[in-house]
Amino acid sequence: MTSRTTIPLPLRANRVHEACGAGRVGFAVAAMALVRRTLWIRESWQGETLNPLGLADFCDPSQLLVAQTKDQTDMLAVAEEALRDGALPLVVLEITRPLNLREGRRLQLAAKAGKSIGLCLLPEGMGSNASETRWLCTPLFDPDDSTLMSWEIIKNKSGTNGTWHVRWNAAARRFDVVCPAGKRPGSAGAAL
Amino acid sequence: MWFARLASDRVLRARPCDGPFALTLKRANADRLYCLNRAAEAQNLSRGMTFADARAFCPDLLSQPANLTEDRRFLHVLRRWATRYCPWVGLEGDDGLVLDITGAAHLFGGESAMVADMYQRLKRAGITTRIGLGDTRGAAWALAHFGAGEAAPGQPLAALGQLPVAALRLDDKTTTALQRLGLRRIIDLEKAARAPLARRFGPDLMMRLDQALGRQPEQVTPLAEPPHYGVRMSLPEPIGLFDDVMAGTSRLLEQLCTKLKTNEAGARVLELTLRRVDQEAQTVELRLARPLRDAQRILPLFTRGVGEVESGYGIDQLRLEATQIEPLPVRQLSHVSSGRTDQLDDLISRIGTRIGLDNIQRFLPADSHIPERSFLIAAAAYSEPEGPWIPPRPRPQRLFAPEPIAGDGSRPPKHFRWRRMPLSVARATGPERIAPEWWLSDDNWRSGLRDYWRVETQQGRRLWLFYTPQSPGWFVQGEFI
Q: Which end of chain B is more exposed for a tag (fewer CB within 10 A), N or C?
């Protein structure tokens, strides 16, 4: 099921969005590629780290700040402060427990005050009602390419849901929307 | 003022001991005695003796390695203390002070009373001292080192004449040569003809003699007091409201920032101490992401810290001190610079008050092919963004500690389980062999070489696997987007 409408990227400004699924880091990297500076907030006990050498193909790692907090309360406080300030156009949070409505709403108000974008990366099923959009991101296997991903909007406050297949265009340094493999011209599934 | 055993006195002040004690310093490829106490000197030990010899002569000798920087610091402490006698206090070598007490002696009841007071106070502090008092700096030095006493004003030769020539601050070679000539005392030197001596020893010898006898001036250079960045305010009535405390802080900040501005410095760490009526004191510490001296920018950063203060019965004294200072020269403003980084620095400071300034980090490139050491993590407040970032080969966006998976052989397994997910390999690219850096011992790289594979699974996940041929095993270390 592929949507005919255009993909709503870059993310709507002044709002907080959510991304889940195995490819959520890829989605965050795509969002980082569209802005100048990013603050990435994570809890310090988490073992997984970002690798700046891996990010270098997509965005400039020198413009990335990482904040390590001791728990999620600190993380939300830091995110609210950064969103409200607006010095950083994008704030990415790695959420580990679901946000309640009050926390989600506070982040929305902060993003509105600072004219910045928030992006929460969450494990499955931890979405908050206050978020503007929720994206389900999954990496896909493609025989010809190794960056194919499926980005699906599963919640949208001001628009329709949809699914897009994207791949990284290394020459133009951007993500291109492509047709799903089965429906490409010339392939067997195109007639369906 | 000569502190004959400054280094050992300093150590013994902190930890007194009765027996022989010495500090050792490694010189000329051997541990040698650097400074010893009176008990050790009584055992016929001397400076410069090797430590092994000293232990043989005196088996119960206690020792400790010398710390020259601490000794220097202690001398500066004494210098500051000595300004209680007169404002002109300078350092004299590594273990002495020179005081110009002209016009200050009468405040202590005369020169002898002042010297007695100095002796008494230093003795109480446990510091061996010898004080010489003379018309000139040279005379005072000679008397301190070679015969403690006071020279009568106007007659330096009477006091100095009988002292050996070494008291003129000459080097060992000149002293020995003079003694060979039969000029053992200063009075002998004074009576000898000047011209042949000057021709043989150079102008230095005569200059030292003239300085000691007051025929040639010599200055005392007092060290400048380091500027003190602390201001305080005492209140007639205690205050407790948040706004009042902030208003007080703002007044203090303005004074402090003026002071910082005159010295072209910026504060890195500020400490606000609020003393309550019941003598309790609470401290608010503020660490800044950049050195700052702008009161309007610093004040809002105190909001969070002051808000947490428990005012109790009220606060009656505020004290603000910049505990860490960095030079911050005045800069030319131009239309090119934007105010954007200022805003970011303020944000970092503000977040730093909550989670600690060290926890806001940025990546810096590092020269290593080991994946986990190919970048550095530095505190954003103390580093500048650096580039360029050039990955040698495609690298994963996420890294984690290696997680073992089942597999054998040097090709990636067709099917494997990772994090309870069954995965099947659709395409594997590799291997890329990375050898451990032999010059650094890293426990994680004990297993030797690694062959890295970029594996794309049928399920979509793209993983970074490695195989260790020297102790066979398969691991997952990263994930591509």
A: C
